[in-house]
Write a structure and sequence with these properties.
Structural class: alpha+beta
Largest sheet: 6 strands, antiparallel
Shape: elongated
Order of helices and strands: HEEEEEEEEEEEEEE
Strand order of the largest sheet: 6-5-8-3-4-7
Number of helices: 1
């Protein structure tokens, strides 16, 4: 029996068919891209805004936490829209104003030079030691005669770190403090101020040591005597950001208004800008 082999004709795509497929695919891809582009761009923009908002919020929280520990009536504004300086407290308490029933007890005497006093109630003071390079301040009003920035006012006195603890404050030298506190309160500060300022598209945190003489308000932000400056947050629009302090008429509850404007760098491919505003209330009761 004779075998027959069937040969089937095989064909590929013609050039015309291939071009038609490519054209149709391109049309479909272009149509899909029109609908996808907006959601993708929106997602990228939202991520950029979220990053900026998170950075700004973290910076404002850190700054607010620092300001909440300010020595009453020590916050002041430097030149420019975004420049503040203040004296941070390490802790505080109440000093003894009267002896015990048996006549014992180390009172704080305002009528003469007094080298030490008992602490009746304390907040944040170290149990022993930890008072290195610090001073005690009583009734800081932030005005001539009661200004901790001016050592001539004598309401700030250096502490003897080795002889002080949470129950007893011993001064480095006997000092006659000029004013009693109506609440018998005192604060302990480090012998340095804290400065926040905007420069070079960033918010910086620096410090200034309290000198033997008056620590004048910053003549410029930044300036040469700012030490240990570190960046708090970058990508800041310094022209739009501001720190505005209102001490209030009563001088007992000042308001610090913080405006922080951040802009996404061009290298990220977006042009996002966010602005955060926050108010911090300061208890200026000395």
């Amino acid at each position: 029996m004779r075998a027959f082999t069937r040969i089937c004709a095989q064909r590929g795509f013609t050039l015309v068919e291939a071009i038609v497929v490519i054209v149709i695919t391109g049309i479909i891809a272009a149509g899909v891209a029109v609908f996808i582009r907006a959601p993708v761009e929106g997602y990228v923009d939202s991520v950029a805004r979220a990053e900026l908002t998170d950075a700004a919020d973290t910076a404002l929280r850190r700054l607010s936490r620092d300001v909440n520990a300010v020595l009453p009536n020590s916050l002041r504004q430097g030149p420019g829209a975004a420049c503040i300086e203040f004296l941070p407290t390490l802790g505080g308490g109440r000093y003894r104003v009267a002896p015990r029933a048996d006549g014992t007890g180390n009172i704080l005497d305002f009528t003469q030079n007094d080298p030490s006093f008992d602490v009746l109630a304390q907040n944040g003071l170290p149990p022993t030691g930890g008072f290195g390079n610090s001073s005690v301040v009583v009734y800081n009003l932030g005005i001539p005669g009661a200004n901790a920035y001016d050592p001539n006012d004598r309401n700030r006195a250096a502490i003897n770190a080795g002889a002080s603890n949470a129950g007893l404050i011993t001064l480095a030298a006997a000092n006659q403090l000029p004013f009693r506190s109506p609440g018998n309160r005192f604060q302990v500060i480090q012998n340095a101020s804290v400065v926040y300022y905007c420069a070079g598209s960033a918010i910086w945190r620096a410090s200034r040591a309290l000198p033997a003489g008056v620590l004048a308000a910053p003549a410029a932000c930044p300036q040469a005597d700012f030490a240990g400056a570190t960046v708090l947050v970058g990508n800041v629009d310094c022209a739009q950001s501001s720190f505005a302090y209102n001490a209030a008429v009563s001088q007992r509850n000042g308001i610090l208004a913080l405006t922080l404007v951040l802009t996404q760098p061009a290298s990220r491919g977006t042009n996002e800008t966010i602005s955060l505003y926050q108010e911090v209330q300061l208890d200026n009761t000395p």
